[in-house]
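If it is no trouble, might I ask you for a protein's amino acid sequence along with its backbone structure tokens?
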Amino acid sequence: MKNIIKKEISETKEVLGRIRRKDFSGNEGRAIKNSSWQIATTLVAKAGSLIFTIIIARLMLPEIYGLYGLALSTILFMGVFSDFGIGTALMTFICKTIDKKPAKAKGYLYFLTKYKISLVILSSLILLASASWLANSYYNKPIYYALLSGAIYLPTTIFSGYLNAIFIAKNNFRPQFIRELIVQVARLSIIPLSIIYFLSKVSSIEIYLLWIFLLLSFCYLIGGIYLFIVAKLKHPFGKTKAQKLNTGEKNELFRFILPLSVTALSGMFFGYIDQIMLGHYVESQFLGFYQVAFNLVVSASAIIAFSAAAVFPIFARLKGRQLERAFKKTRNITFLISIAAAIFTFAIAPFIIQIIYGTEYLTAISYLRVLSLLLISFPLINLYTTYYTSQEKTKIFSILLVVSTILNIILNYIFINIGLSYSMFYAVVGACVATIVSRYAYLIGLILWRQAT
């Protein structure tokens, strides 16, 4: 461990030296430049999201905030039908073709976008069809209109980030940074003022949440329009016409997407099943406590895992020993930062919750301490999945994710019900434990499979 730390300190000094000299030559220099923009984007996204979450959690208080979070989780869960791996496939195939065959890369964009639009429409229709049953029967909570508004929220959020893949493939991380800045400024300007206004003017919680989601959709739409305009002005594909894909290329693309479809479906279950199952069993204020703790961990994990997104276009271009060296470097740095972050979060959890969210959310301290273990697994999972995807080995982590998702559902059902035999507080603890066990099982599988291949 000491040798690893010394080595990483030495390499960190070298990186800082290159930044001071503005030396971004070669793959290493490109990775440093990408990482700088990715850090900035992630910081803006997560800092903005954290501030936004803190503000609305304080304004709404646990009960309404729990309902808001439950509606948001359900809407995003339904978004699984809008992807099926298309976003990952777009980034991977554009990365491999945009430099040498821009017309072919443009062909991949047009071909995949047609399917994307169809799937987004399908997701919205499924959400509209199931909103009444979910709100009134499964959850038995006043979020029906919020779920209906998801039919608008989903397309705008998906559109907002879809074109990022083009710029990332060109190693241009600046547009996604500006887009994120636009979205966060819009959210922080419009939504808090709207909450204050609607709290005094609207007596119905359902109508109140409806307006919040409609205004959020508008904020994301602005960011998407910016990316669209930049793509039109910058001509990332040059001025070439899109080259249609032949049958062999389409078949290759579908073979790549098929395991990703399973991954996307499993990933949504993996990401939201705990909150969706808790929504059935516990009162909305306990959902609020769980969500503030989980959101803190997710935000911190995303900051730690910035390197995974930054190195994707690098990994996609490397093979053999160069790839192995780049992967190990990134993994070692990520692991050391993750360990420190988990220990720090566990130690100061009471101060974090009380200072950030206030005394109304003190129950969340216990949940945050348990979930702090995810600060180690989340960033490493992101890195390993980035590695497998960049090498088109999507089948590997697809299988592992499906198994882990099934384990997650089973453990959530068992542990939540065991906890309910004591109280709703312990039901949420059960969900925390189920999430941790299943995430670490997934990570261990990713590590072992890579060692075996």
Summary: The CA atoms of residues 212 and 394 lie 37 Å apart. Residues 1-9 have pLDDT under 50 and may be disordered. The longest helix spans residues 26-78. The radius of gyration is 22 Å.
